């Protein structure tokens, strides 16, 4: 996220009064609302713009539609929430006609059906501009209470699902929102904090640490690096790709140290989970290397740290 | 709404399976969700695009921001629902900088504060394209159950709040969402059906009749015509403007015939309410004129009917 947008959001966050039924407003993967009788709701929204978030026709209309919903489902997973209803608004380029609009919705509806999410409303418009898709998703926590970014505690083990880096080779469009993994995690352990990896492993870890007012110690050798990260032909190392690339849409989460070994023993899902470090009381994020040296891991990842 | 978009929405509506907790999906002013313990939620969303829904700088950034939220609050009013939380996504033109973004949000936040609506989340982006604002609003019915478009019954009296026509002279931007009126109505009578006037009195009446599978008889002389409708200098009559213009954001609603006179007697709000006709079992919408003649009132309004 560009610095200007980050500051703008912080400005709105400071100005926007949080009133009931809203419990958690701007600043997490989703908002949290408290309804009567202890019912908790989580709500997230994303706006995808042609030329910024995707290119067309490089990316098919169906994959664009799929991704518009999938990024929101990933946010729900990061709250440990089950998505229930989605609202889809479209700014459609007139020149591409009805078949283009149908393809976008076909991609989106196929994913909605797979996760039993109802497309409950929206707003359709056309213009001479590029495609814009805005999706809002509502859901309910798997275990009654959502998991926030702000709950990490010193001593927690830090885990990540799957493997990171090189998503640009295709996974940024075809990724599976980690909803099944999030639900299983809520059954097995007490999740202290969770976020999905959209900005990059290092950047999103920093978001989680900032909101929790803690730091972390991360083992470089433990980072699960996706095979795609090594397939990219550029001067950056696979580890740097894994730390910096973004759009992995994996889950980054912390559990109490006591629960860590038990989680590793009990984990029975096809998606791997990997312990990559531990939460520390001191702020900052320290990356420890196999040779015994360590560096401060800034939000933008390792390469930038090496250049300092 | 252009015919192509109307057909596209019907296509999505047919395809989109409605699953719990969604009770009412696409097709009303807002969706209705049933949560545990009888808690009912209403959700609506609108996408406003520069060059289509507003012009800049002809319309100030603050008024654009205000309208983006206000149209959603009007939808909530049409469901007889109190808005609680809003989600605001922006595609910001880079060249206009931070001050433009601040002005949009200032206009939006001022209205949110006035109605005690929490801005609970959103998504901010910038690009070289025009301004796009997507707003989703959540709320709860004033009287536990929302009022749908589909509940009108033969014999019902048809009412409208305020006066219609000529909103283009300014009210399309500065209108007051009829939330106070909706709440008072729920206290005084049994509302059978309600919709807000965005497409035009005739068009939105047809939407209500279609969803309720009924018709209506409307008295031309009873239509409350706004002074702005007469200020427009064109060949169309003020009545035609009142029937066709759209963006009045008044409420059009029906109540049982028994409740009609009681409502008129008990009404104590500054905004007028006017009986404009009655619901009929026969489909179609008949406009009766003072001279005793009558014509079929098509969705696009009177002028088009006269040209037939």
UniProtKB/TrEMBL annotation, chains A, B:
Mg(2+) 2 binds at residues 46, 75. ATP binds at residues 122-123, 149, 198. Gene3D superfamilies: PurM-like C-terminal domain, PurM-like, N-terminal domain. Mg(2+) 4 binds at residues 29, 44, 75. Mg(2+) 5 binds at residue 199. Residues 169-287 form the PurM-like C-terminal domain. Mg(2+) 3 binds at residues 29, 75, 196. Reaction mechanism of ThiL seems to utilize a direct, inline transfer of the gamma-phosphate of ATP to TMP rather than a phosphorylated enzyme intermediate. This is Thiamine-monophosphate kinase.
């Amino acid at each position: 996220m560009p610095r200007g947008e980050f500051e703008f959001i912080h400005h709105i966050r400071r100005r926007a009064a949080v009133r009931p039924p809203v419990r958690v407003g701007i600043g997490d993967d989703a908002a949290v609302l408290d309804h009567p009788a202890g019912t908790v709701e989580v709500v997230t929204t994303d706006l995808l713009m042609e030329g910024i978030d995707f290119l067309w026709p490089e990316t098919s209309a169906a994959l664009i539609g799929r991704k518009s919903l999938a990024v929101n489902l990933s946010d729900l997973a990061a709250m440990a929430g089950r998505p229930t209803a989605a609202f889809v608004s479209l700014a459609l380029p007139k020149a591409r006609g009805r078949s283009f609009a149908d393809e976008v919705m076909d991609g989106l509806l196929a994913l909605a059906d797979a996760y039993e999410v109802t497309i409950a409303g929206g707003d359709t418009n056309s213009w001479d501009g590029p495609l814009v898709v805005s999706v809002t998703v509502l859901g309910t926590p798997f275990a009654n209470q959502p998991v926030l970014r702000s709950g990490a505690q010193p001593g927690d083990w830090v885990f990540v699902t799957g493997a990171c880096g090189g998503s640009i080779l295709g996974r940024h469009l075809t990724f599976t929102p980690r909803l099944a993994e999030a639900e299983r995690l809520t059954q097995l352990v007490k999740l202290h904090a969770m976020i999905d990896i959209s900005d990059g492993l290092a950047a999103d870890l920093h978001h989680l640490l900032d909101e929790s007012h803690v730091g972390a110690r991360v083992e470089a050798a433990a980072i699960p690096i996706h095979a795609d990260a090594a397939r990219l032909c550029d001067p950056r190392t696979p580890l740097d790709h894994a730390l910096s690339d973004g759009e992995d849409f994996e889950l980054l989460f912390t559990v109490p140290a006591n629960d860590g070994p038990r989680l590793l023993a009990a984990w029975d899902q096809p998606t791997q989970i990997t312990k990559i470090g531990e939460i520390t009381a001191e702020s900052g994020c320290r990356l420890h290397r196999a040779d015994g040296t360590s560096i401060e891991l800034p939000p933008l990842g390792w390469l930038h740290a090496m250049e300092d």
